[in-house]
Amino acid sequence: MKVLICGADGQLGRCLLQHYPSHWQVTATNRAVLDITDPYRVKALIEKTHPHFIINAAAYTAVDLAEDDPEHAKAVNTDGVKNLAIAAKNCGAGILHISTDYVFDGDSSSPYTEDTPANPLNIYGKTKLDGELALSEILPDSLIIRTSWLFSEYGNNFMKTMLALSGKNTPLKIVSDQYGCPTYAGDLATAIIYLLENHVKPGLYHYCGNTPVSWYQFAEFIFEQSYKAGLLHLPQTLQAITRHEFGRPAKRPARSVLSNKKLADMMHIPDWHNAVIKVIHQLKSERQE
């Protein structure tokens, strides 16, 4: 199977490149190779490579910057998806597109299912939702996976940011009233491969870690395990703050917990706690090299 991966230098893209099966013929692109906001470049590359499937892991993910730069966020998260969908339709390719829990407002006390109406609070969430809708209209047989709180040993993510900030004499201030499900990018990559290999029915799916936590609880676990593993030489103290005290430009959903049930009925969803420990040992090993 010929697969085109967009956003291959991000943490999900790098995990896909690490895990994809040997019978896949993969074309990996980053923004320098394929700017999905340029419809002519998209059309030319897809016609050249003629993939059976396109995995779109490319996105504008700067949630706060998007509030001041909505046109750039829209260009990538909405128009870029349209460009891929049109080109894919013209050459008969399928698309698996990655979306986000931020399409929801976070007001529900129950996990969000794929049937729950979306209501984004910020520009990032709105542009991602508009990308979903555009893709579904152009290519109804596409696959859309919403995920949340991605972390891995690669790229920029909350876990690596926390570790980079460790060692300060003053406590780290971490938001304690925003809840979601951490998701290991390597587990998501494995799930994507499973879906494509098993020709799963097209549609909208949620995939995330099983246990919801606050950012504070997530950070607490990261630091506890990092100290236990010897990645950190001293315990890290934390201070719980509210989303209001955090004071960022973009509103965040208070509880954007996704329901995994639809996918959990067909595959195993690994425990993100184990993945955190795995990443810690990987980072420790890299430091010792």
From TrEMBL:
Q: Which Pfam families match?
A: RmlD_sub_bind
E.C. number: 1.1.1.133
Q: Under which main EC class is this enzyme filed? A: oxidoreductase
Q: Does the keyword NADP apply?
A: yes
Keywords of the record, alphabetical order, are: NADP, Oxidoreductase
Q: List the GO molecular function terms.
A: dTDP-4-dehydrorhamnose reductase activity
Reactions catalysed, semicolon-separated, are: dTDP-beta-L-rhamnose + NADP(+) = dTDP-4-dehydro-beta-L-rhamnose + NADPH + H(+)
Name the family the entry cites.
Belongs to the dTDP-4-dehydrorhamnose reductase family.
What does the UniProt record say this protein does? Catalyzes the reduction of dTDP-6-deoxy-L-lyxo-4-hexulose to yield dTDP-L-rhamnose.
Q: Which NCBIfam families match?
A: rmlD
Q: What is this protein called?
A: dTDP-4-dehydrorhamnose reductase
